[in-house]
């Protein structure tokens, strides 16, 4: 049941993200007077629709995207244009004709192509910006919830210094440094060697490299700060597996790891993450997603190669919506608290919205970035004409001429999507 709930959460989250993306296009378009004839979530056959005013709102069978149909996306052919021969010439002509046919008599001024460049940019970038806003809100939400994690409060003390072989140690002859220093369960380590230790990671980094010398430690005990001195020892400890058994090599010898040893174990508690770190986390998601988009063809090739060979999928590979659903199912099945799983789900949806933001900024039709680039090109031409003192400014950009690029992009995206879906079924990415 938890797995089903997890998948439903992601499906609903994806649907809401798409719906708000399209809303980001529709609201400014209506504000600027453009007639919006359809607002649809999904593709394929229509499952439900209702017309309100001049706009038909509906849900289609395959919730893998959505669209807002704005009237007059493409201007008619410039005067004197001759239709060429061939498939792509016919595609361009058909796109122009369909766009013109949508304009009602007397409503030519409500066509999208009549908008100024700034207004076109607001309309076309409204969708991706909505996804960016959702990524920030979702990131702040899972930061506020936080995660169950190790803290600097001492849960227990080791009685003695462990041996490299994993045999029992002697508390009388080799007491653990923490015991010798007077630490006690319940102490919260405030600083170590003069460094503030707000997290368990901070404490581990501070302990590293301090073996063999006296170190000042400040702990909070019963509301009071107590200064102590601890002398970590440099030990080789046996590596143990998840069941606590000593890991051995092919010759049967115990595997060991060297490091400074104090002899404390942390408590586990839910800790919220600082909201001030949200911008840095959003920036990290952006750069990571942008890098994945830049290397998208390579990532898809790697997914195909790993799918049809015995190579397991790498954790940093791209995935389809099926892969996202499988990850959600893995999250739902984790042996963790409900709040921990909710936080991970929110982080997953935040990453998904960041992907929608970055992906839609690709400057090629039919993506939003392609329309934005055309608007910028149109604005640049008009600005040059103003500088030159021309009385007649250039008309709208002939977007229809980019339709062959849009068709090629559509085929590439469709093929990549199908390939990734197959990969996510045959050889899914396992993050957990």
How would you sum up this structure, described in words?
- By secondary structure, the chain is α+β, with helices and mostly antiparallel strands.
- It has a domain at 148-271: PDZ domain (Pdz3 Domain).
- The chain is 45% helix and 20% strand.
- The strands form four sheets. It has a four-stranded antiparallel sheet. A two-stranded antiparallel sheet has the order 1-2. Strands 3-10 form a two-stranded antiparallel ribbon.
- α7 runs parallel beside α11, α8 runs antiparallel to α9 and α8 runs parallel beside α11 (403-426).
Strand order of the main beta sheet, please?
A: 5-4-6-7
Proportion in β-strands: 15-25%
Outline the low-pLDDT stretches.
none
What's the pLDDT, averaged over the residues? Answer: 86
Supply the CATH class of the domain at 148-271.
Mainly Beta
Number of DSSP E strands: 10
SSE string, helix = H, strand = E? HEEHHEHEEHEEEEEHHHHHH
Task: Specify the number of helices.
Answer: 11
Q: Please name the CATH topology of the domain at 148-271.
A: Pdz3 Domain
Please compute the radius of gyration using only Cα atoms.
Answer: 30 Å
| Terminus-to-terminus distance | 19 Å
